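User: quick one, sequence for these tokens?
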């Protein structure tokens, strides 16, 4: 075995990418990814050693649950010391939810975890699956001049672009570039060369940037020197600069060692504002047994109904210990609760403004943070600030 080979672990959960056509029946059946090198002979040029771990029961991603995120996190944890990077093959419909969840769950991550899949099965002639898989493996195996992983974050690779996982949304059921990161540029773009974005957290050694992985970080974390991160939390006290997280995330795991958080709060729901929504519906949703948190999808820059009875329902829920995050329905832009009167009313009711976070990231972040069972003040602080680059700050 070539000792310079990078060991990449492929975790196969299911999804369109893993289907090939049976030669006899013509029907689609799951592909055995242990035979990836036979299916894609050109992979040998990448000088990687592939291993495969698969779910016993492959999933259509529409059936994914938080328990499956724990399973993926556990598989990464199990193979972490023996692998240089991970590729998670996943159906596209909920890929952004899963990538967001793993972004938070994998604490002090210092290796690439890249989610990818395809719009057409890998066994179909025009499939985008082979391209996505080859590029994901090459990026996962890439190192900087200092020998550190080029990427040390949870990402989504699709349509020749690498995105931070907790920034993505699936926007197309038809296009090969099915995902978008509307509020943060791609971490890398694939053409004749792979061009990594200079200065992005979680990206190593680009254009002389500083930090643990040669990054000075979009969010102000300078891991190596312990520079102050968001909200004055010091990187020296546990900043997770290696995976592009803000120093604040060190509150959760300050020893700097990789670990997978497996405790998730699941009694959380999404309420989407729309013209005509009535108090009875809102009251019913906020009165669900054991409800812990709500993602409130609002209009524009964080605006919602100003009806006093509606605001009273929100305030009452907050007083009962239910956390409510304000997330814009817009694909691009952010919540600014202080900008308009309606947003201020939400703020006064105790709703937490969430900047430009996506609904996928907000939901999974709340599951992660509430799973920590921290005091209320600390919980609100964690929900408000950026932990993994999910909010522009």
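Assistant:
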């Amino acid at each position: 075995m070539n000792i310079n080979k990078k060991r990449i672990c492929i975790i196969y959960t299911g999804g369109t990418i893993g289907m090939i056509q049976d030669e006899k029946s013509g029907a689609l059946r799951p592909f055995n990814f242990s035979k990836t090198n036979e299916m894609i002979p050109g992979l040998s040029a990448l000088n990687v050693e592939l291993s495969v771990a698969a779910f016993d029961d492959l999933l259509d991603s529409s059936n994914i649950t938080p328990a499956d995120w724990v399973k993926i996190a556990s598989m990464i944890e199990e193979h972490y010391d023996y692998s240089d990077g991970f590729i998670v093959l996943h159906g596209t419909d909920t890929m952004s939810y899963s990538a967001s969840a793993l972004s938070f769950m994998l604490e002090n991550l210092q290796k690439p975890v890249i989610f990818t899949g395809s719009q057409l099965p890998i066994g179909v002639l025009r499939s985008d699956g082979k391209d996505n898989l080859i590029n994901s493996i090459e990026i996962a195996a890439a190192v900087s001049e200092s020998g550190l992983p080029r990427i040390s974050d949870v990402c989504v690779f699709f349509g020749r672009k690498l995105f931070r996982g907790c920034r993505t949304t699936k926007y197309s059921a038809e296009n090969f570039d099915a995902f978008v990161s509307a509020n943060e540029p791609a971490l890398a773009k694939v053409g004749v060369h792979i061009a990594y974005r200079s200065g992005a957290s979680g990206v190593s050694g680009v254009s002389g940037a500083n930090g643990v992985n040669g990054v000075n970080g979009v969010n102000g974390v300078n891991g190596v020197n312990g520079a102050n991160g968001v909200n004055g939390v010091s990187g020296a006290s546990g900043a997770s600069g290696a995976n592009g997280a803000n120093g604040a995330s060190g509150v959760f795991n300050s020893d700097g060692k990789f670990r997978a958080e497996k405790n998730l709060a699941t009694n959380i729901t999404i309420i989407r504002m729309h013209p005509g929504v009535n108090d009875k519906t809102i009251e019913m949703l906020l009165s669900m047994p054991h409800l812990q948190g709500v993602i409130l999808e609002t209009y524009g820059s964080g605006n919602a109904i100003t009806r006093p009875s509606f605001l009273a329902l929100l305030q009452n829920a907050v007083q009962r210990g239910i956390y409510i995050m304000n997330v814009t329905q817009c694909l691009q832009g952010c919540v600014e609760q202080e900008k308009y009167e309606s947003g201020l009313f939400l703020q006064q009711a105790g709703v937490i403004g969430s900047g430009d976070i996506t609904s996928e990231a907000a939901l999974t972040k709340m599951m992660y943070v509430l799973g920590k069972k921290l005091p209320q003040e600390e919980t609100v602080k964690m929900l408000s600030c950026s932990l993994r680059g999910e909010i522009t700050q």
